[in-house]
Predict the structure.
Amino acid sequence: MSEILIFLLISGNTHHVVVSKRGEGNRSKIHLLYLLLMSIIERGECNQTAMLSGAMMSYQQVTLYLNRIITGNGLARIKNDKDIYAITPKGLQFVRAYQRLMQLMSPQLETSGVAAI
């Protein structure tokens, strides 16, 4: 039987629940994309430094995922001289889809003996 761990990540006024099984390793790539986009949603327009603290990621992670999200049209660079970014409708669509998926997973967590937060 695998042990399920629940982490509560607090970013600004928002709380994110991360569920993982022991031995699965670090946060998934999809979850990191979600956290990065959420940090931008919470702040509105922001720079890379604000994303670092909001998503609780390293500089290397933010740089990697930032490029992926921009390439996928999830973010737009709105001020090139200061590298200020804003989320696009496609980025919002990703966040909503991720949140729906997590809601669908909640009943599974409750039936496994772990209460959802």
Q: What stands out?
A: The domain at 4-111 is CATH 1.10.10.10 (Arc Repressor Mutant, subunit A). The two ends are 22 Å apart (CA to CA). The longest strand covers residues 4-11.
